[in-house]
Amino acid sequence: MGGGIFGPTMDLMRSEPMQLVQLIIPIESAYRTISYLGDLGLFQFNDLNAEKSPFQRTYAAQIKRSAEMARKLRFFKEQMTKAGLSPTKSLRSSDVDLDRLEVALGELESELIEINSNNEMLQHTYNELSEYKLVLQKAGELFHTAQSSVAAQQSELEAYNTTEAATDSALLLEQEMTMDPSKQVKLGFISGLVAREKSMAFERILFRATRGNVFLKQSVLENAVVDPMSGDKVEKNVFIVFYSGERAKNKILKLCDGFGANRYPFMEDLNKQFQIISQVSGRLAELKTTLDLGLAHRSNLLQTIGFEFEQWNFLVKKEKSIYHTLNMLNMDVTKKCLVAEGWCPVFATDQIQNGLRRATLDSSSQIGAIFHVLQTKDSPPTYFRTNKFTSAFQEIVDAYGVAKYQEANPSVYTIVTFPFLFAVMFGDWGHGICLLLATLYFIFREKKLSSQKLGDITEMAFSGRYVIMMMAIFSIYTGLIYNEFFSVPLELFGQSAYGCRDQSCRDASTAGLVKVRATYPFGLDPKWHGSRSELPFLNSMKMKMSILIGVAQMNLGIIISYFNAKFFGDNINIWYQFVPQIIFLNSLFGYLSLLIIVKWCTGSQADLYHVMIYMFLSPTDDLDDNQLFFGQKFFQILLLLSALAAVPWMLFPKPFLLKKQHEERFQGQSYARLDSSDYPPEIEPHSVSHNHEEFEFSEVFVHQLIHTIEFVLGAVSNTASYLRLWALSLAHSELASVFYDKVLLLAWGYNSIVARSIGLIVFISATVGVLLVMETLSAFLHALRLHWVEFQNKFYVGDGYKFFPFSFASLGEDDE
Hints:
Blueprint: E1 18-26, H1 27-40, E2 44-45, H2 60-82, H3 98-160, H4 165-178, E3 188-195, H5 196-209, E4 215-220, E5 225-226, E6 233-234, E7 236-243, H6 246-258, E8 262-264, H7 270-326, E9 330-331, E10 337-345, H8 349-362, E11 370-374, H9 390-400, H10 411-425, H11 429-444, H12 446-450, H13 456-463, H14 465-482, E12 498-499, E13 514-515, H15 534-567, H16 571-602, H17 608-617, H18 632-651, H19 653-666, H20 697-721, H21 724-748, H22 753-791
Antiparallel strand pairs: 1-10, 1-11, 2-10, 3-7, 3-8, 4-7, 5-6, 9-10, 12-13
């Protein structure tokens, strides 16, 4: 499928040949060896210490140290996020000593924590003083208002003294003046701020707790203030509570604490009020300057960290991953070497050995690492080398199941068949162009978009941009065949082959059109659209086309199963699975496909439903008008007998042959030297592997019975399942036609710009929302089902596991 100039040819059909390797690494070069293998990214380590807990492993202390450094880096990232800063990518080399980095991270963390603590204390004081200043101002206004009111009342009282009633008032005033001053009631007051949403409840409970023996006055603050305790902006009211007695005071203090009201002292003396306000204002100005300097220092510190953050983060992740991998290695009995086991591709042998030699030289080790290939019967991991184009198609296949080691990879065919089946259901070249333009945007800007964080749906569309591009190109192709451009037929490849019987065209809707020119050269003749026979004709064409496509793809799946069996040397599957399956499928549905093609070529009026039904019910009856070619009756009987014979052929021989093969192996007739085998032990077929397992004939027979029944019934149901190509293609075409005729053309019939504009907006919204989004998703899912169920179940085992090499390239993708 293409390859590099310096590397081996990339083969996507079968996974890369793998080998189980044992590495014996001297301790002094172990760190560099693992580091160089991580740079190479072609070695998957097996955990040789799976029975040990993480704390019992050799390098637990180093991992703990790396985890602590990672925690500090996460703390720095949180602080940068809060400050609205983002780490900048450093272009400098990564030659940083980890010991110095650990010390530097500790110092920076301590400094940052101290700065944050000081800033919090200063901010708390600043917020308290800000509230105090507001209380002084608002409470001063309340007292000033009250004093003005008293002065006005006294002037009114003096004016009233000139009347006769003034004598009585004078007597009363004289009595007040002569009262004992010790018997006069002195009121106390408490001032502060309470949240506006709690002010009504505060007032109500205050009244009830003191039985109405208090006087509460509130003033609304226009702007929200920062609460000293929570640090959030809260809308508050300034309050003053006048009370009498210590019991009332204690109740008020408890209620203030309960409602989270902040209390502040207040002086009645006007001069003292102005003095305190001026002191508070001066203190606020000093705190503001100190806070600004602290925040600037913190910002500079975070920017300094930001310049180095990505580099530090990568180094810490790299360090942690190296020691985590070293913990998977076994310590030699001499405690001078580490033993590693793992899988690597055969083509990477030289690269890995070069890395081992380089690690030995760089660490000045006197003993080199040993590279030893092990023989094993364990199934190796599956590794396909993909690029940015093929990776999305490979993911579609892997979502169903990872390929068994070196079995045929469906993604080779999926690259073509998946977008083609999608396009059969989505055939409209106008819609295809819209999809193509959208995906070209992703492709041309992929470098920029790949480094950004996208939303879930956008990320999904971006990762599958090349799949969508292929779907769009195939949709344009099938749209040209269907001759649909937003459901409108166009004469792109010449004039229509059909015309009216005369110039007046009066009988066009009754008698129909006649052929006046050569057949339309490519795709559907535009005159079919809008005619009375359009739907019957398109239904017949698309239904038969769906069956032809389905039978062809299912045959492809069965043929791939032959190449799988041949590759693994499994003759039993070739003769007792592939052969009867290909005979059964083509005796029934291959024959149906042949009849469809013959009928198209000859223009016969034969009823294919009748032919297929009576092929089973009355195979010996004459076909009469339904005969399409000479010898059809004899040919049908032969096909029917072949299909019936294929079922026991598929069911019975294979279990007995497997049983015989198992017995021969234990009689010593099938033993051979390891080096005489035609294929490596790891790719032995199931029929000659697992030597020492007991053979359960009943299980094998039941499994084969299930497989046979599934194939026989599946041949019918899978063929019927391909009719979804016809159904969705018809639905897409009809929806597009309805939106065009009943929305756009209807709105265009009005001689009003507003009506036309509304119609155009509705048409575009419906086209994008329904046809370009929902219909695309629907056709995608149906094409996915046809590949996973109808195609892949003919040959694909999919019980393998992926090759996950130890690689530093993936560290940037995974967050801690």
